[in-house]
Amino acid sequence: MAVPADAGRKTYVVEHLDPELGPWSSLEYAAIAEESRDAGARFCLSSVPEALSLPQRLLDIQGLIVEHRSVEVIHGEEKDRVCLLDPAAVEELSPEDGDKFDVFLFGGILGDDPPRDRTSELRSKGFQGRRLGPIQMTTDTAVRVTRMVVQGKVALDRIPFLDKPELRIDDHESTEMPFRYVKGKDGEPVMPDGMLDLIKNDSEKGFGDLL
Known about the structure:
The protein is of the alpha/beta class. The protein has helices at residues 23-38, 56-59, 71-75, 97-100, 120-123, 139-150, 195-201, 207-210; strands at 11-16, 42-46, 64-66, 82-85, 103-108, 128-130, 161-163, 166-168, 174-176, 180-182.
């Protein structure tokens, strides 16, 4: 049985491909849930292990759907309406895809550095693929960009991006983020609330420990 969908209402699904949930992903998922809710869309977190305890802040966000089932089970009977955001896809995502698809699927964690082909696990299920350009994005950025394209009808090449921005940690140290971000109105990369503090507090650990 599929996650119920209203006509024209988009659903963004992140297939959680890890047995745990790190602080980085927790902040990303909260941002995706809140932004999806505000855009009149749903956010579904699928394949969540039964034993995984999600943060209460995440569970309290209206519009979030937590599923222990895999996306193949949830949407297996409507694969033609599901779009997999796939770095290996040939065709770029376009505003017209908002009319073709109701569900947009992401394999977490997209923000691995160096990138691992986590999406291959979903690619093998037969979902139609679209690409978000050649540069690795964080999961929340990928969902944000997809929403801008399919709901906002903004072409991918019209979205302002910041590639591998340098973040100032303190007066003496900065760190380069190895991802592509949407450029905010203030000229800074759009990130989840709390992410900058998390990066600053844990900069010495490396990104792998944050994910």
